[in-house]
């Protein structure tokens, strides 16, 4: 299970430790150090989980939870040095899904994270609309892709990747996250599976595959689909 996780923790040492354990289980982790940044990052990336320290500058963890619960179904695991029952109940009443007091065992933390992610259900989607990203359209019902007004023939694996990225344009997907989309389609995975699919898709949807404007590499992370702008010298 590979998830996108926001870690809101202003203690640099603690954040480094928790991030290391999360990334060891192949999660994609963004660290923020204050409550305002936590709210903004959850709104921007819509992660599966927010690991939230209670004592944050700018906006404290309780207020972060209060704000996000009005607008988001993100799972929240609250971390705090406060250990009284009243503090725990307040955090849970405000919408936290789980609560751990410091100091805690990293192994227990990861067990709690796994439990929360198992409970996370995909948000209900409207009846498969045609997805549009710049000059690209992806029709999940008819299984049709067009680029620059022309129909594009895609393999099942290529279509699954393009559809996943078109549902969340500008989101950066790691290779592991994209591999998750291929379960039941590609029987044999290699480290190069995603790169090969991306290379072939660029030949089909880009005006200039060597200077892609839409299916972009984010070096050291993975890939994203963008509306983009065509290169000026594109045919």
From TrEMBL:
The keyword Transcription regulation applies. Residues 4-117 form the Response regulatory domain. InterPro entries: CheY-like_superfamily, OmpR/PhoB-type_DNA-bd, Sig_transdc_resp-reg_C-effctor, Sig_transdc_resp-reg_receiver, WalR-like, WH-like_DNA-bd_sf. This is Response regulator transcription factor. Keywords: DNA-binding, Phosphoprotein, Transcription, Transcription regulation. Residues 128-227 bind DNA. It comes from Allokutzneria oryzae. The modification 4-aspartylphosphate is found at residue 53. PROSITE patterns: OMPR_PHOB, RESPONSE_REGULATORY. Residues 128-227 form the OmpR/PhoB-type domain. Gene3D superfamilies: 3.40.50.2300, 6.10.250.690, Winged helix-like DNA-binding domain superfamily/Winged helix DNA-binding domain.
């Amino acid at each position: 299970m590979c998830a996108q996780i926001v870690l809101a923790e202003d203690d640099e040492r603690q954040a480094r430790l928790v991030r290391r354990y999360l990334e060891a289980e192949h999660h994609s982790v963004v660290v923020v150090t204050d409550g305002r940044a936590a709210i903004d990052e959850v709104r921007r990336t819509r992660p599966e989980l927010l690991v939230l320290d209670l004592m944050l500058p700018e906006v404290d963890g309780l207020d972060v939870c209060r704000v996000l619960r009005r607008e988001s179904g993100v799972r929240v695991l609250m971390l705090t040095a406060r250990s009284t029952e009243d503090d725990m109940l307040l955090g849970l009443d405000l919408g936290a899904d789980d609560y751990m007091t410091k100091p805690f065992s990293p192994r227990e933390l990861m067990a709690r994270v796994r439990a929360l992610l198992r409970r996370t259900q995909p948000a209900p989607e409207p009846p498969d609309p045609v997805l549009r990203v710049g000059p690209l359209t992806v029709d999940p019902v008819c299984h049709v892709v067009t680029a620059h007004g022309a129909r594009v023939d895609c393999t099942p694996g290529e279509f699954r990747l393009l559809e996943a990225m078109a549902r969340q344009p500008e989101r950066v997907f790691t290779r592991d996250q994209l591999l998750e989309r291929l379960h039941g389609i590609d029987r044999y995975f290699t480290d190069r599976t995603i790169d090969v699919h991306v290379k072939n898709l660029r030949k089909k949807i880009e005006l200039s595959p060597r200077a892609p404007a839409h299916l972009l590499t984010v070096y050291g992370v993975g890939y994203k689909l963008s509306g983009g702008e065509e290169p000026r010298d594109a045919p």
